[in-house]
């Protein structure tokens, strides 16, 4: 047999049996041409260029990837193909892949059809060289699920149905092949699904009736009142209803929901089971009030419900949310993480977060990106979030998407974590339910975020007092003539003979009657707290000054100190860290005074030993920004990580210390959510420098400072904010103490400025041992971490408590004192050293360690000793318009005797927190200290 005959007898690589292999190879080529063999790379490039009659390369002896054999290939397709036929076969595979990549751009996802869809050339068979003559020819479908081969017209109709009907799927940006194949199989395999049962279809209609019925009732009875109507996005209600039922079938025990205004009242009543009569009372201004609380508007309020599903009970929480829209996202994630930790649900199988967004907010607010960035990180993982965008295609009063974003879709930000995105037409509730199940299945399978873009419209204005047609006349002409979702779906069911034509009206009348009775209209949920698992009652009605014992017996303290100093065998420390730990062993023995890093570590160890968990997050918190903490140790030989505090009480407690991502807003909000959910964990967020907290001001204003007043929500979150003037410039000096003090009222937060390690120890223990959960803001030190005077003896940890005011430490006779300097923080040591150098006996120095709640009684007792002193001076490092002066001078004045006067000494008012030149800083600091003491003559 000659060579020519042999070549003809060998199997063609373009045989239909190898179509899947070719498709996979071509997909690799599209991603990166360099990942395929050179001969295939050349062939594919020539094919793309339209070079005719080219011969295909031979297959290698062993195929580098499995070839999926068609179940029953036709005789025509199993024969060797001509070059022209091969090109056509490849073109068909290209067409199928184009629909997977870009079919969403042609999908019917806009109920109003107001925006022109772009012309996507590669979705046209002609683009790939396929003609009308090819439509009747049979081709292999490659990996297309459902059919192995079919005429091109059938293939074309099928891929349009899958990818261009009322669901637009974006998933080909995902790099993990397994995830892409899973989604592909789910979408393409669903074509054999008979669709929802008659029972489910009737249930969907009933839920749409509830969504529309509530809005109609409110619109009629409370004309002009703000409610941020769901009308146009009605499919959200059956979506959530089915999500809860489906989640229950998968063993989910808790769902935590975060959402802003749009549709919130509808969700509260129709999904969570808030009683309609309670909502109506709120509209009428008759709801219960508490004069000690400010309360909040009805569309900010949260709710807790228990849902009964066929798969078991599901506890549902809707988080309280301020007007800052997406800021709730990381708060919910933190709450979910706390609930998962409590359940030992490490993979997120039992508690899931659901975030409901607005389209413009999702694209426009940076905290969304920050929250996505946290989603797979070690310290903030929650097993994936289900994101639902109520996309009414209009942001506030803006009608043109060009004004609200620079991306094609509002959901494009989700691609940063390769989340799949499913755009769905809100007027097709069955497609909405399908996508909901797909999204939840994906989340439960891959433990990653997933996005449902519910494309709908807004029938009313931004609020019901707004007239949207002023700025969107064409859109609202369409909306006013557009039937409601319920109406369209009722017609669809009537056409299928699933309901009688009059049954939809009967459903609406029945719902309205139930609504007027004020009873529960949510079929599976009602208000409750069955799954909360945390008893907050011990923390209610308690006072900040409630006495508590925070000292620790010496034997237990030394035992714990020894325990956390033990290292695994062969663990090699860095020499500098080894020296620090060696000093700590001496400190535990009483041979050296205790410094800040060790005092803090001992506080954590004792709390863990007593059954409390500890969670600390921040940028470089494991080591400590200032190289002082070293709670996380690194083996210098192999990089192995060891955390001694994890070994203190590992069965009953958790110790977590996380070097967080470079975010303040999202991370602080996450920690707030965690602390507001778990009162028995000491939760700490640490700023790298105190002024970095500026980036999280919305969390401080809307949650930390006012969460209790608005929503009666307690939270014991601790903020570590390094603060002190050491000449490091405007951005590394001040934690903006004045901003926190300005927010202080009604004992809402605690603001402390500890000046010794012992104070730090007792303050942290007090935070957990008292049955009192309020945020604690700590101005933590920088230079004091290694200041020779800022140390504590071992005895201070075994006795005493946190002192709100620290009196004179030197042997100063009260009768000789003519001037008393009051101060807080690092400046105390500058004053102390200056007085000792000057040998002044006529000036006493008192420290306020807690600035709010203001310790009036304690300060008055200290000042009583210096009744002879006529001048009381408040000395601070910060400029006069910053720091504590503006907020404290009135309560300070209230502590003085009649013959005493209060004066300010410190830097002059300034626009910047501090100067940027070190020499100028030193000059200013000397002037502050000198002014505080005044001359000997002035003090006499």
From TrEMBL:
Enzyme's top EC category: oxidoreductase
Keyword presence, Electron transport: no
InterPro entries in the cross-refs: 2-oxogl_dehyd_N, 2oxoglutarate_DH_E1, DH_E1, KGD_C_sf, ODO-1/KGD_C, THDP-binding, Transketolase-like_Pyr-bd
Superkingdom classification of source: Bacteria
GO cellular component: cytosol; oxoglutarate dehydrogenase complex
Alphabetized PANTHER family for the sequence: 2-OXOADIPATE DEHYDROGENASE COMPLEX COMPONENT E1, 2-OXOGLUTARATE DEHYDROGENASE
Cross-referenced NCBIfam families: 2oxo_dh_E1, PRK09404.1, PRK12270.1
Family to which the UniProt record says this protein belongs: Belongs to the alpha-ketoglutarate dehydrogenase family.
Protein name: 2-oxoglutarate dehydrogenase E1 component
């Amino acid at each position: 047999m000659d060579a020519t005959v042999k070549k003809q007898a060998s199997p063609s690589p373009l045989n239909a049996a190898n179509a899947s292999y070719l498709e996979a190879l071509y997909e690799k080529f599209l991603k990166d041409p360099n990942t395929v063999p050179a001969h295939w790379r050349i062939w594919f490039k020539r094919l793309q260029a339209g070079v005719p009659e080219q011969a295909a390369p031979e297959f290698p002896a062993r195929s580098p990837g499995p070839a999926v054999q068609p179940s029953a290939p036709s005789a025509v397709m199993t024969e060797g193909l001509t070059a022209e036929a091969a090109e056509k076969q490849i073109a068909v595979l290209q067409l199928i892949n184009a629909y997977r990549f870009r079919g969403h751009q042609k999908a019917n996802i806009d109920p109003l059809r107001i925006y022109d869809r772009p012309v996507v050339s590669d979705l046209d068979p002609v683009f790939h060289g396929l003609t009308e003559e090819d439509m009747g020819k049979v081709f292999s479908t490659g990996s297309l699920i459902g059919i192995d081969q079919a005429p091109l017209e059938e293939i074309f109709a099928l891929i349009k149905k899958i990818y261009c009907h009322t669901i637009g799927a974006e998933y080909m940006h995902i790099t993990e092949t397994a995830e892409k194949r899973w989604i592909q199989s789910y979408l393409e395999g669903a074509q054999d699904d008979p669709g929802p049962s008659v029972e489910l279809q009737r249930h969907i209609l009933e839920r749409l009736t509830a969504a529309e019925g509530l809005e109609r009732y409110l619109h009629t009875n409370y004309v002009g009142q703000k409610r941020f109507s769901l009308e146009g996005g009605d499919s959200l209600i059956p979506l959530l209803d089915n999500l809860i039922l489906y989640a229950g079938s998968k063993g989910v025990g808790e769902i935590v929901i975060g959402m802003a205004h749009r549709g919130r009242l509808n969700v509260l009543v129709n999904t969570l089971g808030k009683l309609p009569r309670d909502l109506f009372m709120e509209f009428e201004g008759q709801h219960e009030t508490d004069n000690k609380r400010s309360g909040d508007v009805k569309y900010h309020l949260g709710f807790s419900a228990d849902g009964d599903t066929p798969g078991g009970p599901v506890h549902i929480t809707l988080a309280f949310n301020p007007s800052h829209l997406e800021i709730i996202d990381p708060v919910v994630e933190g709450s979910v993480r706390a609930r998962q930790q409590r359940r030992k649900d490490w993979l997120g199988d039992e508690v899931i977060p659901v975030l409901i967004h607005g389209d413009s907010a999702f694209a426009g607010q940076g905290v969304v990106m920050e929250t996505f960035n946290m989603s797979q990180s070690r310290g903030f993982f929650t097993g994936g979030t289900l994101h639902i965008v109520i996309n009414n295609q209009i942001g506030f009063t803006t009608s043109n998407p060009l004004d609200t974003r620079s991306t094609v879709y509002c959901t494009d930000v989700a691609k940063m974590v390769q989340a799949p995105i499913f755009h769905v037409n809100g007027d097709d509730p069955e497609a909405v339910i399908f996508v909901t199940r797909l999204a939840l299945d994906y989340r439960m399978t891959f433990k990653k975020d997933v996005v449902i873009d519910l494309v709908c419209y807004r029938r009313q204005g931004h609020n019901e007092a707004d007239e949207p047609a002023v700025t969107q006349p064409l859109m609202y002409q369409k909306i006013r003539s557009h039937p409601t979702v319920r109406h369209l779906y009722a017609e669809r069911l009537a056409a299928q003979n699933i309901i009688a034509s009059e049954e939809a009206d009967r459903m609406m009348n029945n719902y309205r009657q139930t609504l007027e009775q004020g009873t529960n209209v949510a079929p599976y949920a009602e208000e409750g707290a069955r799954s909360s698992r945390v008893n907050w009652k011990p923390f209610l009605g308690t006072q900040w000054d409630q006495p508590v014992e925070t000292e620790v017996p010496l034997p237990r303290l030394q035992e714990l100190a020894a325990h956390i100093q033990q290292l695994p065998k062969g663990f090699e420390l860095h020499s500098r860290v080894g020296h620090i730990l060696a000093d700590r062993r001496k400190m535990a023995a009483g041979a050296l005074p205790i410094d800040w890093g060790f005092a803090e570590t001992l506080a954590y160890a004792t709390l863990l030993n007593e059954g409390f968990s500890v969670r600390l997050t921040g940028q470089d918190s494991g080591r400590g920004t200032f190289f002082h903490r070293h709670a996380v140790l690194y083996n210098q030989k192999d990089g192995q990580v060891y955390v001694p505090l994890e070994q203190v009480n590992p069965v009953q407690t958790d110790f977590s210390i996380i070097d967080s991502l470079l975010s303040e807003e999202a991370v602080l909000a996450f920690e707030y959510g965690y602390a507001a959910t778990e009162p028995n964990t000491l939760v700490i967020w640490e700023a790298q420098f105190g002024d970095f907290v500026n980036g999280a001001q919305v969390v401080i204003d809307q949650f930390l400072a006012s969460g209790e007043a608005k929503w009666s929500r307690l939270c014991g979150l601790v903020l570590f904010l390094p603060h002190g003037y050491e000449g490091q410039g405007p951005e590394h000096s001040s934690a903006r103490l004045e901003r926190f003090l300005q927010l202080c009222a009604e004992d809402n937060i605690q603001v402390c400025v500890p000046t010794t390690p012992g104070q730090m120890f007792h303050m942290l223990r007090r935070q957990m041992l008292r049955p009192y959960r309020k945020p604690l803001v700590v101005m933590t030190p920088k230079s004091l971490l290694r200041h020779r005077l800022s140390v504590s003896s071992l005895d201070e940890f075994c006795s005493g408590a946190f002192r709100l005011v620290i009196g004179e430490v030197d042997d100063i006779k009260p009768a000789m004192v003519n001037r008393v300097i009051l101060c807080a923080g690092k400046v105390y040591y500058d004053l102390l050293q200056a007085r000792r150098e000057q040998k002044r006996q006529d000036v006493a120095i008192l420290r306020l360690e807690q600035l709010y709640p203001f310790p009036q009684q304690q300060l008055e007792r200290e000042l009583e000793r210096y009744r002879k002193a006529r001048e009381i001076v408040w000395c601070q490092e910060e400029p006069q318009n910053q720091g504590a002066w503006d907020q404290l001078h009135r309560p300070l004045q209230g502590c003085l005797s009649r013959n005493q006067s209060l004066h300010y000494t410190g830097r002059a008012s300034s626009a910047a927190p501090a100067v940027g030149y070190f020499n100028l800083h030193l000059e200013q600091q000397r002037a502050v200290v000198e002014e505080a003491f005044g001359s000997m003559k002035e003090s006499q």
